[in-house]
Design a protein that fits this description.
By secondary structure, this protein is an alpha+beta fold. It has two domains: 75 residues; 127 residues, Alpha-Beta Plaits (2-Layer Sandwich). The protein starts with 17 loop residues before the first helix and ends in a 23-residue tail after the last strand. About 19% of the residues have low confidence.
Length: 241
């Protein structure tokens, strides 16, 4: 016998159909996807905010560093000016030649029967103006300071002694004898030179004695700090000892 449900339709229990179950699963899946999307958005937004804050902090640090650099710029300029001035003073000191000491040394190395009539000094070496083989042996231009000495001597041996003594002065690189000649009894000239003499006022006042012309070349000033003299400069020549 078939059972009969006497309850009104509105009070009867409803059975879940397959279509309704599928809709529920779709709804739950959509909710889960929405939740995941919201979570990813929140994490991305937080990360972007954190990076923006870090960028702002770096910008503030850079601005502070630039401000500090601007405040310290005068000190950097002063240090640069100090370095430039120290370099200039050092260059002037190394390029200075002690002409006073040269005159003191000349007064000591001149032989007894020898005297000078003229002296021409130059801060850079130059070849002797005389023509001939002596010009080839003269110091090269720009090698260092030089001085050309004209003078008189009673004997030829005094000239040779003077050349030997000139070579022993401080900082001397080479000594070149340009000419050395004296007058004979008949008034002519007896020459003992390596080249024709230049003549002129340099040898005037020697009368019957030998007149000579010598060029003394000194070492380059740029190399002076690296040089080490075998002996200290005497106090009588301006040295410290």
């Amino acid at each position: 016998m078939r059972p009969v449900n006497l309850l009104p339709p509105e009070y009867r229990p409803r059975a879940v159909s397959a279509e309704a179950g599928n809709r529920s699963y779709v709804f739950l899946g959509a909710m889960a996807a929405l939740l995941i999307a919201i979570t990813v958005y929140a994490l991305t937004a937080n990360q972007a905010t954190s990076r923006n804050e870090q960028a702002a902090e770096k910008t503030r640090s850079a601005e502070a560093a630039e401000k500090r650099a601007a405040d310290l710029a005068p000190f950097a300029d002063f240090a640069q000016v100090k370095q430039i001035r120290a370099t200039s003073i050092r260059a002037l000191a190394t390029s200075r030649f002690d002409w006073e000491r040269l005159m003191r040394e000349l007064s000591r190395v001149l032989p007894k029967e020898t005297w000078l009539t003229n002296a021409e000094a130059s801060s850079t070496a130059s070849a002797s103006p005389s023509a001939g083989p002596a010009a080839a042996t003269a110091p090269a231009a720009g090698a260092g300071p030089s001085v050309k000495l004209n003078g008189c001597a009673r004997k030829q041996t005094d000239v040779a002694r003077l050349i030997v003594r000139l070579r022993k002065m401080h900082g001397v690189d080479d000594v070149t004898l340009t000419s050395s000649e004296g007058a004979n009894a008949s008034g002519g000239a007896v020459s003992a030179s390596s080249a024709p003499t230049s003549g002129g006022a340099g040898g005037a006042g020697c009368d019957r004695f030998f007149r000579f012309e010598v060029t003394v070349a000194f070492k380059a000033l740029a190399a002076a700090p690296a040089q080490a003299d075998a002996k200290p400069v005497p106090s009588s020549l301006g040295g410290g000892q």
